[in-house]
């Protein structure tokens, strides 16, 4: 029987069970939260990003989730610097030209700060003179740091990035640092 685990990855945690970084770096990994042999992350979520990570013991399912050719959608809640413009949202919807080529069109909309959002540690830097806003962005690719690069390319750098959904799986009811079987 296939095991599928949904994990709400906290900020500053690697999406792997061991740290193969420099000696003595002692970065926090999934093993600080999940003690389960033979499950592996399906896809990646950068250390400075938070939110939904799917883990499974099924290699085929892992490949289906993480392979961009399968076009499994992923939805992100993105706090950006500035109040995002209609023109920037439209650029995201049409696809953005990055150094590694144009992105597929995304679904993009303004949103209020998500209700019940857990605090980030450390908190996002606050500046009175620079407003921020939230957008919901749904993509079907998985390029390296893609969402951050897309928002920066349209003039609204990412301050906080939370993956809310992968396919039909969501973070609903899942506290930061917690996991459950899907």
Automatic annotation (TrEMBL):
Its EC number is 5.4.99.-. Pfam families: PseudoU_synth_2. SUPFAM superfamilies: Pseudouridine synthase. The lineage of its organism: Bacteria, Pseudomonadati, Pseudomonadota, Alphaproteobacteria, Rhodobacterales. Residues 4-153 form the Pseudouridine synthase RsuA/RluA-like domain. Signal peptide: none annotated. Keywords: Isomerase. It comes from the Bacteria. GO terms for biological process: pseudouridine synthesis; rRNA processing. NCBIfam families: pseudouridine synthase. This is Pseudouridine synthase. Belongs to the pseudouridine synthase RsuA family. Transmembrane segments: none annotated. GO terms for molecular function: catalytic activity, acting on RNA; pseudouridine synthase activity; RNA binding. It comes from Thalassovita litoralis. InterPro entries: PsdUridine_s_RsuA/RluB/E/F_cat, PsdUridine_synth_cat_dom_sf, PsdUridine_synth_RsuA/RluA, PsdUridine_synth_RsuA/RluB/E/F, PsdUridine_synth_RsuA/RluB_CS, RsuA_PseudoU_synthase, TruA/RsuA/RluB/E/F_N.
């Amino acid at each position: 029987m296939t095991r599928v685990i949904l994990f709400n990855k906290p900020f500053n945690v690697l999406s792997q069970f061991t740290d193969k970084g420099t000696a003595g770096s002692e970065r926090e990994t999934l093993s600080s939260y999940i003690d389960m042999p033979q499950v592996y992350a399906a896809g990646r979520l950068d250390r400075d990003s938070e939110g939904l990570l799917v883990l499974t013991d099924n290699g085929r399912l892992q490949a289906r989730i993480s392979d961009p050719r399968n076009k499994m959608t992923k939805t992100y809640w993105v706090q950006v610097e500035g109040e995002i413009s209609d023109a920037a949202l439209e650029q995201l919807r049409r696809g953005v030209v990055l150094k590694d080529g144009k992105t597929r069109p995304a679904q993009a909309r303004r949103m209020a700060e998500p209700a019940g959002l857990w605090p980030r540690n450390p908190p996002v830097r606050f500046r009175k003179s620079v407003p921020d806003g939230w957008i919901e962005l749904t993509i079907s690719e998985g390029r390296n740091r893609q969402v951050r690069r897309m928002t920066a390319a349209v003039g609204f750098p990412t301050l906080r990035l939370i993956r809310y959904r992968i396919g039909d799986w969501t973070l609903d009811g899942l506290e930061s640092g917690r996991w459950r079987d899907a």
